[in-house]
Amino acid sequence: MHGVVMYGPGDVRVEDRERPTIVKPTDAVLRVTASCICGSDLWPYRGIEKQDGPTPMGHEYVGVVEEVGKDVRTIKPGDFVVGSFFASDNTCEICASGYQTHCVRREAAASTGAQSEYLRVPLADGTLVATPGVPDDDLVPSLLAASDVLGTGWFAAVAAEAGPGKTVAVVGDGAVGLLGILAARQLGAERVIAMSRHADRQALAREFGATDIVEERGDEGVARIKELSDGLGAHSTIEAVGTQESMLQAIRATRAGGHVGYVGVTHDVSLPGMELFFSGVHLHGGPAPVRRFLPDLIDLIWRREIDPGKVFDLTLPLDRAAEGYTAMDERRAIKVLLTPPTAG
């Protein structure tokens, strides 16, 4: 099969790779219908995050089940499924509390690389969710978004306690931040402030429900959020970047008693303890338990109540994945969808 492998910063190749097979009786093998490039894939692409040799890429996926292990009970060949980026048994106490990304049996759900024609998914019963049927083609991008960026944006909004009567600020205008806006509005937020300097992303933020746009960053951005919230700050803030600046901006833009939902993969973030102590701000986040939300998100998409697939503004065949990485790195694309030749 063809699959994407990153050899080092800026070095992405599509290679002939061994097609995955069932390894454990709880595995499933999927024929990938669509996968995509994640903002977190850009950290190693830019050399900020180190890799240990050539790495199969991709952790977001939808597809059709080709084969299942002998212990798989809820998923069968022919099912169209959506999965999350961590595999979980969905039965342990941690999973039962809604934190499947911290499952006691947790492992990478796409260790063979989802940017490929086929994918082995471990713990299939607890990781994959079947759709009600084979989706229409126009629903595939939205279902793919549910596998990570929508689920992550949704968790960020929940962690930030977005809801009726709340003002929500969103730090980060990538796919996760944009879908955090959609999630906040779905959860009933009265006002959603998108922090963005890019016209195309501002337009999509508005489409997803943003009521205000703030272009300033850092201390100026914090001041502007407070101006828009009677000097108090947002009730809820979504942090969807993962840098020192974005985390401090999120905390400082939030009122005392408010909540920050942080889901940007952190890089060299160090929080000042005394400032945090006196902020009165709640912090909650980390790797999103997407599996918790998948059934409800699939239902919303299936009934066409939400259209998160709009975050994909560039679609390329799998063999042109390197172009997709370049486009996202240069901010010429928000998010790139990849279609394997076997998808048809």
Strand content: 25-35%
Share of helix, binned: 25-40%
Broad CATH class of the largest domain: Alpha Beta
Low-confidence spans: none
How confident is the prediction overall: mean pLDDT? 96
Determine the N-to-C terminus distance.
15 Å
Order of helices and strands: EEEHEEEEHEEHEHHEHEHEHEHEHEHEHE
Count of distinct structural domains: 2
Radius of gyration: 20 Å
CATH architecture classification of the largest domain? Alpha-Beta Complex
- Backbone structural class: alpha/beta
Give the CATH superfamily of the largest domain: Medium-chain alcohol dehydrogenases, catalytic domain
Please name the CATH topology of the largest domain. Quinone Oxidoreductase, Chain A, domain 1
Describe the main β-sheet briefly: 7 strands, mixed
Give the overall shape, derived from the CA principal axes.
globular
The counted number of beta strands is: 18
Helical element count?
12
Oligomer state of the chains in this structure: single chain
Structure description:
With 344 residues, the chain is α/β, with parallel strands linked by helices. The chain has helices at residues 42-45, 93-96, 124-127, 140-146, 149-159, 175-186, 199-208, 218-227, 244-252, 273-279, 290-302, 321-329, and strands spanning 2-8, 11-16, 28-37, 55-56, 61-68, 80-83, 86-87, 107-108, 118-121, 128-130, 167-171, 191-195, 212-214, 234-239, 254-262, 282-285, 314-317, 336-339. Strands 3, 5, 6, 9, 10, 17 and 18 form a 7-stranded mixed sheet that branches. Strands 13-12-11-14-15-16 form a 6-stranded parallel sheet, sandwiched between helices. Strands 2-1-4 form a 3-stranded antiparallel sheet, covered by helices on one side. Helix 5 (149-159) packs across helix 6 (175-186), helix 5 packs across helix 11 and helix 8 (218-227) runs parallel beside helix 9 (244-252). The radius of gyration is 20 Å and the shape is globular. The protein starts with a strand and ends in a 5-residue tail after the last strand. The mean pLDDT is 96.
